[in-house]
Design brief:
Elements: H1 3-28, H2 31-34, H3 37-42, E1 58-68, E2 71-81, H4 83-99, H5 110-141
Antiparallel strand pairs: 1-2
């Protein structure tokens, strides 16, 4: 048996079962909807997040991207949190995008979109914090 025949045999022995058994199991177990979901959920652990804005909170919207090769999932996150937690989460979500989002076909566009949105939301957090500080100092003067 030549090396080419051995490689073909190996490909058939591994590729065929993977295609006909592995792919259906992957799809039935949640497939791409659950791909990289645990690492994404870990980004939110230990942070003080709220369903609706509380006094002193800032709000922002950020999209995360995850996928593998031709599959791709985009999630929108609407966050209300204290400014420090919001900054930590925003940085963590950017890192998530620059790792798990790079595995999909959006490899070229995801860094541009993720970094651009990161700076826009960071600026929004700073502006909200500045407005809150100005409003609270105005109330103190009354």
């Amino acid at each position: 048996m030549t090396i080419g025949e051995k490689l073909l045999f190996l490909f058939v022995v591994i590729g065929v079962p993977l295609t006909f058994i592995g792919v259906p199991i992957f799809v039935l177990m949640g497939g791409i909807q659950k791909f990289a979901l645990k690492p994404l959920q870990k980004r939110f652990a230990g942070l003080d997040l709220h369903d609706s804005p509380q006094p002193g909170d800032v709000s922002f919207v950020y999209h995360t991207y995850r996928g593998f090769l031709v599959w791709f999932v985009q999630d929108e996150h609407r966050i209300s949190a204290p400014p420090e937690d919001a900054r930590l989460l925003l940085t963590s979500l950017l890192r998530f995008n620059l790792t798990w989002g790079m595995l999909s076909y959006g490899l070229i566009f995801i860094p541009l979109i993720a970094i651009g949105n990161y700076y826009a939301q960071k600026r929004s957090i700073e502006n909200q914090e500045r407005e809150f500080t100005a409003a609270s100092s105005f109330q103190e003067r009354k």
